[in-house]
Structures are given as C-alpha cells and as structure tokens.
Fold this sequence. Notes:
The complex is a heterodimer of chains A (77) and B (348).
Chain A: E1 2-4, H1 10-19, E2 26-28, H2 31-37, E3 45-49, E4 55-60, H3 65-76
Parallel strand pairs in A: 1-2
Antiparallel strand pairs in A: 3-4
Chain B: H1 3-11, H2 13-18, H3 35-39, E1 43-53, E2 56-69, E3 72-81, E4 92-98, H4 113-124, E5 131-136, E6 145-154, E7 160-166, E8 171-174, E9 180-191, E10 197-208, E11 217-230, H5 233-255, H6 259-272, H7 282-300, H8 305-310, E12 321-324, E13 329-331, E14 340-345
Antiparallel strand pairs in B: 1-2, 1-11, 2-3, 3-4, 5-6, 6-7, 7-9, 8-9, 9-10, 10-11, 12-13
Helix pairs in contact in B: 5-6, 5-7, 6-7
Amino acid sequence: MAINADNDGRTRIREFVQENQLQQRMLIRGDGVGFQQYHLKRLPTVYFIDRKGNVVGREAGYQSYEQLEKSLQKALK
Amino acid sequence: MTIDRLKTHLGSVLLASLMLSLLQPTSLPAQAGNDEEEQNPSAKAVWKVERTRGEEVLEFEVTIFQIPAPGGNRWVWRATASNGTYPGGFPIGSMMIRGSGKPRPELFDPLSPAVMEMLLSVHGAGSEGAGLGWADGTPVGLRRQISVERTEAIDDDGQLILTGLLAGGQIQIRGGARALRLSAFKETLYLSGGGSLKRAEWAATLLRGDEENATSEERTLRVERLEAGLIEEEESQQVEEAYEFLAPVVRVLRKGMSLAAVEMAEKMFEKGQKDHKKGPLAEVVEEVASLLKSSKKIASQPLDPDVRAKKMMGKPAPDFSLEGLDGKMVNLSDFQGKTLMVAFWGYS
C-alpha cells in the first residue's frame, strides 16, 4: 500500500495515481502516522512487514525496481 | 476622586467585565480611602468558551485571576479543555494590562492563541450606545477594528443586549492571491444592569478568493461567564507565587525539548513543588508534573528518526487507521497474515 505523508490534496493524489497507473491501495493524510509512528526522515520511505506483522525492513529515499524487489524477497522469506 | 471619575474608571471594560457585578459604583464610599486598592482589586472569574473555525470546534474553560501589578493588573489564566488537552499546549499563562488601558501585546503568551483571543475579546468588548460604532475583530481572528451599526435593547431582567452588525458592505481583509473578505459580522454582548459583561457572541463569515458564498468560512466565538468574584489578598498572593514558580518551568518546557532542558525544568520544579501543591493553582502544578514526565520520555528518545526506526526492526509494526483515496478507512491490521510493502510518499 502507499501512504501519502505530505498532506497533498485528493485531486493531486488522484492525478499522480492516474499518471503513474498505480495499483496500490492509496491512503491519505498519513503525515501523523508516518512521522510519529514510523519515524520518517525523508520521503519516500518504504517499510516491509512480514506475515506475522513484524517490521523487517526499511528503505529510505528513492529505490530502483530491482532494489525494492530484493528487499521484498527478503521480507517474504 | 469623585464618584463620577471613579465610575468612568471602573467603566473601563477590564474592570467592568470582571468586577461590576459585585462592585457597583454606587456602593463605593464617596471618598475612597485607599485609591490603589479600590482600583486594583484581586478577583477571579471563570469563563466558558466555544470557538469554531469552519468545522473545527474548540471548547474550553478559562479561569482568570486578576492580580494587582505595578502600573496595572496582571491576568493569570489557566485553561482546561473537556478532552484533556489545553488550547495552545500549556495550561497556564499571563498577560499584563496597563492601568485601565490595552493589554501589552509584547507580553502575550504566543502559544495559546485561542486563550489570548478569548481574553482580548472579553477585555475589549465595547459597550457604546446605539448608532454607528466599532467592534474589535480579535474574537474572530481579525486583528482590526470593524465598523458596526449598533442596536440596543433592554430585556425583562434589566440586562442590556447590544448587537453590532457589519456596517456598509464587505471588507477586504487581505488582497492578492489568497484574498480574504469579511462579508458578515455580528457582535452580541449581554451586559448586566451594572454594565459587566456576562455573555458575548461573535460571528463572522469570510470569503476566500473571488467566491461569492460557496465555500465560505464561518468563524464564531462564544464566551459565557460562569462565575466572578473578589478574592482575598492571601489567595491572590498564592496565585502570584505559584505562577512565578511555574512560569520558568513552563518556559523551559516550551522552548526546548532537549533532554538537558527538560532535566533543568524538572530540577526547578522539584525544588518548590511542595509549597504549591495546595492552593488555587494546585491542579496546574499536577498538570505540569505530568507534562514534565511525558516531555522527558520524548526527550530521552534519540533525535534522529533513522536511529529511532532501527529500534522498530523485528518488532510488531504499529497499527494505524487511515482514510483511503476512496474515502473508506483502512487499518494496517486488516492485512494480517500478508507480507506488506508500505510506501510513504509525498511530492516535496
């Protein structure tokens, strides 16, 4: 899922989703959750959560597709 | 000092708002023996406040202690909100009022705008007669005088109701790209026979940009005096001493959240808290104690989010509930048993 942590407007988010043909679940107004519960320093930041619900990975900053896939494989183990 | 001059003096809204219900001008001795004391009595008043800004509603109570200070009065206020949080983040503050005149803006507590708005509104609530006049825009967050047409009426109980309606057309508050216009304004003051303010309501409609009324914003402030009375010199002194004790602690807490700063505040607090655990500000002392505790907890965490995030690894992911783009609420716990990739993103 993707969480907008910058309080961008709905219209802007919708545009972004359409332009990039995103398939993820898109959540909005995530700045509180992001900065307080998930200790964000910069955007984007991706967290990986395993089947048991534990945090197993965190990647801050832009990642290439390959890097993300690698991290996801690790989380799936 | 003649009664007339004393009347004029007491008529200044500061005293009127707090005092006149108890201290009717006519009941004062013709030759006041001690002018200083008569002009600066210690008093206490409790006000109920309801503020709205569009859909946002803020409700709280403010207790104002009026304490004589060199050259005027000091209002020490404490606020409580029904949901346990203080408007502005801290439960206490003060402002100076020089003589019978205006509050000193440089001494305002900038952290509690809602409380300041309320205090200034009560202080500045006018009471001229019918006709064209001015109203203070502070209650609705506009720092300017607003030209109003006043009507006046006396109801059965002999209380005076003064209404002020925006005179003339709309007022331009701000120009440029984020233009703001005041399209409606109403001030209603309920004064007792003696001229003291018992209740007041302000309402304003603001238009943004060049909209006519589509998404206009309503702002209201309603204040109601629940009680008011003179207090003994002893109580007044206790309030002053407790405030002097609490002020530096709160100041440190407000300015810095570094561990060193919080520990410094804690030290100052521990030194004298026993002396102030009873008395009129006892509750505030307790609140500041718990504020210190939670501040210390936050300050003890590493500052760098990356370092804090490291501590999360291998631990259960904190649950949250957020609105989806489709308007439906989504919980993290909805996805139990699935591997998740959660991306936080933004434009900037």
